[in-house]
Design a protein that fits this description.
The complex is a heterodimer of chains A (about 600) and B (about 350). Chain A is α/β, with parallel strands linked by helices and about 600 residues long. The mean pLDDT of chain B is about 95. The chains are: A alpha/beta (about 600), B alpha+beta (about 350).
């Protein structure tokens, strides 16, 4: 008898919300009921819908249970596994229709996705190479090895694949440069130093489908003529490191890595190098310096890594998601691959949806989809029914796009033209309660802290930009501040050494471009419309609405609120520390921000 | 060597294809400012003061790291370039002590020179400034990190030329600083005090302790000479003021490219030391007494004769010094052999 398969998500998100406890409870419950031999309990990689974790899927009927906790397990086993009665309360509930949905493909979050790179994530056990093989794993490598090196490169060029790490450089071209570079030794390096705040697509791929990355690297190594490679992965991703290590061991055992791969002359060994926590090591030359044991500081380009990379040798360096696309090209064929996407941006892109959005998680979408579809159809719209204000795309190097840009097709060139960038695919959604000046300040704080300190404009310039933004948000903005910000931004973009510095002003420039009036309000009217900048807001009790319940006064930590019971209260602005407790506590919406 | 045709500031040039923009400009007598560039060190591209405008480029590339290419059209002093240089100078100024009046580096400071050249009189950027304690733990030079502009030349010189690797960048962002492993004072680090970092520091972050308040570059005469310490023959310039040595700068154009060791770089103050021997001394009644050369040489000759007569020539040995030249050492062994002994040796060995 074939065993039924129960998939338990064991991505980092679901593990944090308790999926390993669910697994333990499930195994125990199945044992207790004497039906353990009828079920195969598999821990998978990330499903992307982290908001709803821990996720449990029962096959073959594909019932999608979410937010399952260990204490739900007995009911799940009794009702569903034994009596075939779906446990409604554990199904996903559509936030709009309120309906319970059984199958995950009917959920809005998945319906508009095209999971090609993530096709194995959440489906296979990433620690079992046989599951990868059963889904066509390493077929791409076999196909590639039938071709000549140049034919492989040609195929990648034909696919139209562009680097998924941020800048969108054509992958085939990069491979061609490395292939043509003179050198007795060449390397392939995978950039898995994912550092954008809120971005976790590379982590999920490594955790959920590590062999796809290895296979992609193998094909690259064959094409460029490399026999050694590194995956530079941040040490803050212990699960990804562990699964990658297991996958490398398994690939070595199965003859996909090592000497004379699949009986050919091609040999390749792969090592892991763990990063030490510097954001700048996501920059390719800093990453290479870090592998060499140097301090992670960018080096001037040219020479580009394709010509002089790791230890001065020609090096093909791509990002996790880029490599994970490669097996697909060689399984489907470049033409088939390129059917998805736009004219100049082919294939799919994985986005990490975070911020004030209902469905936070990972979504893979075809290039050319609109931002509106991602945020409202897949993301389920804004939390709490609030109004959309802006979306930050591309992390600290990217930009903020307002409502009127939501119908832009999502591809490399449109986003860049609009002042944002694809970046690694972080998408932070903001509602009307986000202050755009404060947001720019947040990103500048990040880039300034993470600046390696090597070049003057980035080290000193982002510091001064940050100080100006801090002044503005504290209510000390002055006439001329915006011009000074723009001046600095232009010089930093013009003169910084590496991509981190050159793009650091983007969040400021894009918010200035689309939300300049908010900056001006902060400076000239000393007003923060979002009510975020505490120095610029004051709390006020509307006497007509206040019923005198005294709740606010009792909760005020500094006794700034006074008033008789059952009569309107007042806040003493000279005492108030603007903590917002009264605002949160009031049940009558009597407290407003001014 | 293949050549490429380029244009700098409207001037058509044909230069080696292997050159950087900076080298090409220098070959045509066009000076581009640099802080972090040193021809013998790895190209860092850190200070960004050498940025130039290249037709068709999105941003302003650094002249010191960007290779020339066929047909390149370069502007080294365009409005956009000057603006960028001014902003970067102002950014440095915003975080640099304003004590040029008394700074030891005044007159030979690149920050001062370029501020003058681009009329930067201060900084519009007000805010936090770094505060580091002055490191004066070693006998030879001060390390004032408040004046450091992070060009990294000291780091590269120490690692790539000396090999000591005593200093490196530490921390990130605004808190970045150049310091020793574990941030200990230089005296406790692997620093060998060669002073080569001092000689490449473009500002007053590293200054010799010798010649303080007495070594303005326009008040000293620079005399090219050869170091007397060993046979390497390093040349350097003595800074002479009122017939006294007040400092040293290496001769970067000499055969040793300005490389020096702690003795040659800092060990010159014996010249005017009151303890210095100026005449031979002869011990009389247990005390050294000044004597003339004739007296001293006669005494030595007499003693040699005495020893040789009593114990034979092999009882005599001579030990020469690394401070003597090859020629002097040759003569020394000749002298010893004329006395009939082969016992001659030299201190320059480990």
């Amino acid at each position: 008898m074939e065993r039924r398969r129960i998939l338990l998500c064991a991505g980092t998100g679901c593990i944090s919300s308790g999926s390993l406890g669910v697994k333990e409870a499930l195994l125990k419950e199945l044992e207790k009921r004497g039906i353990a031999d009828q079920y195969e309990v598999v821990t998978s990689g990330c499903h992307g819908f982290c908001e709803q974790g821990p996720i449990v899927i029962v096959h073959p009927e594909d019932i999608f249970y979410c937010r399952v906790q260990a204490e739900d397990v007995p009911e799940l086993v009794e009702e569903y596994l034994l009596n075939n009665r779906v446990v409604e309360r554990l199904l996903y509930k559509d936030p709009v229709s309120g309906e319970h949905i059984k199958n995950h493909l009917e959920i809005g979050f998945y319906a508009k996705q095209l999971r090609r790179v993530l096709r194995n994530c959440g489906v296979i056990d990433p620690e079992n190479i046989n599951e990868y093989l059963a889904r066509g794993g390493y077929e791409g490598l076999k196909n590639a090895l039938q071709l000549s090196q140049l034919e492989v490169i040609e195929e990648v060029k034909k696919s139209g694949l562009r680097g998924r790490g941020g800048a969108g450089f054509p992958t085939g071209l990069k491979w061609e440069f490395t292939y043509k570079a003179q050198g007795d030794k060449k390397y392939v390096v995978c950039n898995a130093d994912e550092g954008d705040p809120g971005a976790f697509m590379d982590r999920s791929v490594l955790e959920g489908d590590p062999h796809a990355v290895i296979e992609g690297m193998l094909i690259a190594a064959y094409a460029v003529g490399a026999d050694e490679g590194y995956v530079y992965v941040r040490a803050e991703y212990p699960l990804a490191v562990k699964r990658l290590r297991l996958a490398i061991e398994a690939a070595n055992r199965h003859g996909f890595l090592g000497k004379n791969i699949l009986g050919t002359d091609f040999s390749f060994q792969l090592k892991i190098k763990e990063g030490a926590g510097a954001f700048v090591c996501g920059e390719e030359t800093a990453l290479l310096a870090s592998i060499e044991g140097e301090r992670g500081m960018p080096r001037p380009r040219p020479p580009f890594p394709a010509n002089a990379g790791l230890w001065g040798k020609p090096t093909c360096l791509n990002n996790v998601e880029t490599f994970a696309n490669i097996p697909l090209i060689f399984r489907l064929g470049a033409e088939e691959y390129a059917k998805v996407g736009t004219e100049r941006s082919k294939g799919t892109k994985i986005f990490a949806l975070t911020g004030k959005i209902n469905n936070t998680g990972l979504a893979e979408v075809p290039m050319g989809i609109t931002m509106r579809e991602i945020i409202f159809d897949i993301g389920g719209g804004i939390k709490g029914g609030k109004k959309f204000k802006a979306v930050q795309i591309g992390g600290p190097s990217g930009g903020c796009l307002p409502e009127e840009k939501l119908d832009l097709p999502v591809d490399y060139d449109s986003l860049t033209a609009a002042g944002a960038m694809m970046g690694s695919g972080g998408l932070v959604v903001m509602d009307e309660e986000t202050c755009m000046v404060d947001l720019a300040r947040f990103f500048l704080t990040f880039t300034q802290k993470e600046s390696c300190g090597k070049c003057t404009p980035c080290r000193e310039g982002t510091k001064r930009m940050l100080e100006i933004l801090e002044r503005i948000t504290q209510g000390n903005g002055e006439d001329g501040d915006l011009e000074m910000l723009e001046d600095l931004a232009v010089t930093i973009k013009d003169t910084a050494l590496c991509g981190l510095g050159q793009t650091a002003p983007n969040p400021v420039l894009s918010t200035l471009r689309y939300f300049r009036d908010e900056y001006e309000e902060h400076i000239y009217e000393k007003k923060c419309r979002a009510g975020v900048c505490t120095n610029l807001v004051s709390y006020y009790i509307v006497p007509e609405k206040c019923v005198g319940c005294t709740l606010c006064a009792r909760n005020c930590p500094v006794n700034a609120i006074s008033g008789e019971r059952k009569s309107p209260h007042e806040i003493d602005p000279s005492v108030c520390i603007k903590c917002g407790v009264c605002y949160e506590k009031c049940k009558f919406n009597a407290i407003i921000l001014k | 060597m293949s050549k490429v045709k380029i244009t700098i500031n409207g001037m058509p040039l044909e230069v080696d294809a292997s050159m950087t923009i900076l080298e090409a400009a220098e070959s045509a007598g066009i000076e581009i400012p640099t802080f972090c560039h040193d021809p013998e060190l790895t190209r860092a591209g850190a200070c960004r003061i050498c940025v130039v405008e290249v037709a068709g480029a999105r941003n302003l590339p650094a002249a010191c790291t960007t290779p020339v290419s066929e047909g390149m059209v370069i502007e080294t002093e365009s409005e956009r370039v000057i603006k960028a240089r001014r902003v970067n100078l102002q950014l440095i100024w915003a975080n640099h002590p304003q004590d040029c009046l008394t700074c030891e580096k005044t007159g030979s400071c690149k920050l001062q020179d370029y501020s003058y050249r681009y009329n930067v009189t201060g900084s519009p950027y007000k805010g936090e400034t770094k505060v580091h304690e002055l490191d004066d733990t070693n006998p030879f030079f001060f390390r004032d990190l408040n004046k450091c502009i992070y060009c990294g030349k000291c780091v590269r010189k120490c690692y790539e030329v000396n090999g000591a690797g005593a200093v490196e960048f530490m921390y990130r962002g605004f808190n970045t600083k150049v310091t020793t492993a574990f941030d200990v004072p230089l005296e406790e680090s692997s620093c060998v005090m060669c002073g080569m970092c001092v000689d490449v520091c473009p500002v007053g972050a590293l200054t010799p302790k010798q010649g303080l308040h007495n070594n303005r570059p326009w008040e000293v005469k620079k005399v090219l000479t050869t170091c007397p310490y060993c046979g390497c023959g390093c040349t350097y310039y003595l800074h002479v003021r009122n017939d006294k040595i007040v400092g040293i700068t290496p001769n970067f154009k000499g055969p040793m490219k300005g490389h020096m060791c702690v003795k040659g770089r800092f060990g010159w103050d014996f010249v005017d030391s009151p303890d210095r021997l100026k005449t031979p001394l002869i011990k009389k009644n247990g005390e050294f007494v000044e004597a003339t050369w004739e007296e001293a040489l006669d005494l030595v000759a007499a003693k040699f004769k005495e020893v040789r007569a009593q114990y034979g020539a092999d009882a005599i040995a001579g030990l020469s010094s690394a401070r003597a030249t090859n020629e002097e050492n040759y003569l020394f062994q000749k002298l010893l052999r004329s006395l009939g002994t082969n016992n001659v040796d030299h201190c320059a060995r480990l």
